[in-house]
Amino acid sequence: MKALVWHGKEDIRCDTVPDPTIEDATDAIIKVTSCAICGSDLHLFHNFMPGMRKGDVMGHEHMGVVVEVGSAVKKLRIGERVVIPFTIICGECEQCRRGFYSVCERTNRNRKLGDTVFGHSTAGLFGYTALTGGYAGGQAEYLRVPFADATHIKVPDNDLTDEQLLFLGDIFPTGWQAAVQCDIQPTDTVAVWGCGPVAQFAIRSALLLGAKQVIAIDNLPDRLSMARAGGAITINFDEESVLDRLQELTQGKGPEKCIDAVGMEAHAARSLDSMLDKAKQMVMLGTDRPHVLREMMYVCRPAGVLSVPGVYGGFLDKIPFGAAMNKGLTIRMGQTHVNRWTPDLLRRIETRQIDPSFVVTHNVPLEQGPQMYKTFRDKSDGCIKVVLKPNGNGRH
Amino acid sequence: MAYAAAMDDKRFPHTTAGTLAQQLGWFSIALGTLELVATRRLTRALGMWGQERTLQAYGVREIVTGIGILTSKDPAPWVWGRVAGDALDLGTMAMAYPNNPKKAKLAMAIANVAAVTALDVICAQQLSATKVRQQMPVRDYSDRSGLPMGISASRGAASDAEMTEQFRIPEPLRPFDATV
Ligand SMILES: NC(=O)c1ccc[n+]([C@@H]2O[C@H](COP(=O)([O-])OP(=O)(O)OC[C@H]3O[C@@H](n4cnc5c(N)ncnc54)[C@H](O)[C@@H]3O)[C@@H](O)[C@H]2O)c1
Ligand SMILES: [Zn+2]
Ligand SMILES: [Zn+2]
Questions:
Q1: Average per-residue pLDDT in chain A?
Q2: Closest by CA position to A275, among listed B130, B129, B83, B123
Q3: What would the pLDDT profile of A177-206 be if each residue is shown by its tens digit?
Q4: How far is CA B121 from CA A173, A287, B67, B125, B127, in A?
Q5: Spacing, Cα B35 to ligand 1 middle (Å)
Q6: Pick from B122, B133, B159: which is nearest to A279 by CB?
Q7: ipTM
């Protein structure tokens, strides 16, 4: 089959690889009808996350139709339409039972490695480094789904399009969890750093959850226009001071809730710290560029909440922890517990509270994937979200 | 001062890179002047006797680059010019390093130049990136709300969402009205 394969830094190719097969009785195979490129894939594209190996199949946003099930699979049948979450979950361990799916205790087949690097290992993830199990991803014609009885979201086979459902597997619940973690009150100002796909969903989730005011920060005019369309007030950090504007919009008190939807590859804004981060990253004195985290800790209203869906990989330097501690901030973060939110979110799509397809700007065959990685990375051509079609445009 | 100047100056994008470029421009001029007026003292201090001519030529180069950065419409190529100059400086000093009687001082100088080189590279990259960004055509997505009910009807529409305790501020710490 065709698949997007990681060959090294900034080198992703559309190769022919062996079709996946049932390896365990609990596996299922799906034929991928749509998949997408995520901001997290860019960290791998840039080789900022350790543990990628040449030949790894990329992708963790994918949906399709079940074409094969292992003998122990009870909850899926051939022909069913499913979105597959980016987190592989067993549904039975202590963490899964409490709904903390992204830290499932059983699905990371490289547990030892995860234990060594993070203290305790986290869930297995599709297409996402040896640290999280080294499972093949879904930017391909077919995908093997381990622990298939739990690792799926059934979606109705009606007139809802792939583009309306696909993001249930990652960025919609990620933006939603980011907002939920803020424990939004009707009087709250929620500031969202970044206007990428995750941020776009965080903005709309914050609004749906009743925030008084949502403020979105980026320097890309097209993304800012999409944020405004979702009800946000925007700040372009190339043109104005983020701190001054946030103060202004909150009567000098700062936003109660701050969301980091940027993560470890924050760009230099107006201050020198992000340039020094970049220099340190170049000489390996630090692995991440935590400019946004610093800004949030500094500007957040005392007793406020910082919510961090943005991904970090390693060690962060010069974090103003004093400000965070003394102001009594709450920090919540993590990979998304996708299946915890999807029944509710699917219902909101069905009742037309939200139509996630608004975020799609590019819709192309899988073969154009390598080029699309560059377009998405460079944010050129107005690119916000890329959907890839591995099996032609027809849905099934 | 230089910072404020950069902010007013339309040639520099309102970014750290623009500010930094301005500072690097002044730094170039200062260093170039030093290389011209204190040529002997410098060659002596670095154990590089006989290289006075080279040093003076480098001084002129620094001043020209500095003026270029500060006055041209587009500072990016001039900052890239500084990067090339840094390479030349490093090369010259590295060649003078073996058999140098003032190895410690020269090593310090090399380390300093290397540090400035890193700043130059980052500054030049950022300036070029900003330029590319400014030249990209901008798409307008203001018709993509994704909220079929409209913005005002959507505000709070999901307040019915069930929130489990784990994701809320713990009950004893929740805000309450202490005045009643
Ligand atoms: N927690 C999870 O489970 C989860 C799931 C999906 C994605 N993510 C992470 O969320 C983050 C965003 O993903 P995405 O797909 O939206 O990526 P993206 O790269 O498209 O978006 C990042 C945005 O941040 C902006 N940005 C950069 N520096 C900034 C700064 N200093 N201030 C404000 N904005 C800045 C960029 O211009 C860009 O628009 C990534 O780190 C990704 O790995 C996390
Ligand atoms: Zn993702
Ligand atoms: Zn589990």
A1: 93
A2: B123
A3: 999 999 999 999 999 999 999 999 999 999
A4: 39, 19, 18, 6, 10
A5: 46
A6: B122
A7: 0.91
User: What are the beta bridge partners of residue A308?
Assistant: A333
Give Cβ neighbours of residue B119 (< 8 Å, ≥ 6 apart).
Answer: A275, A279, B20, B24
pLDDT value of position B5: 41
Distances (CA, A) of B89 to A311, A383, B50, B61, B76: 40, 41, 16, 11, 20
Question: Residue A64 and residue A81: Cα distance in Å, rounded?
Answer: 6
Question: Is the beta carbon of A390 within 6 A of some atom in ligand 1?
Answer: no
Ligand 1, atom 36, lies closest to the CA of A194
Smallest CA-to-CA distance from A235 within A187, A269, A285 is with A269
Record the tokens describing residue A214, joined without a space.
């949502």
Q: Which domains does chain A have, with CATH numbers?
A: 2-170+336-389 (3.90.180.10), 173-333 (3.40.50.720)
Q: Is A365 helix (H, G, I), strand (E, B) or coil?
A: strand
Sign of torsion over alpha carbons A33, A38, A44, A50: negative
Task: Give the pLDDT score at A315.
Answer: 84
Question: Sign of the CA dihedral A322, A334, A252, B17?
Answer: positive
A29-80: per-residue pLDDT in tens? 999 999 999 999 999 999 888 889 999 999 999 999 999 999 999 999 999 9
pTM to 2 decimal places: 0.85
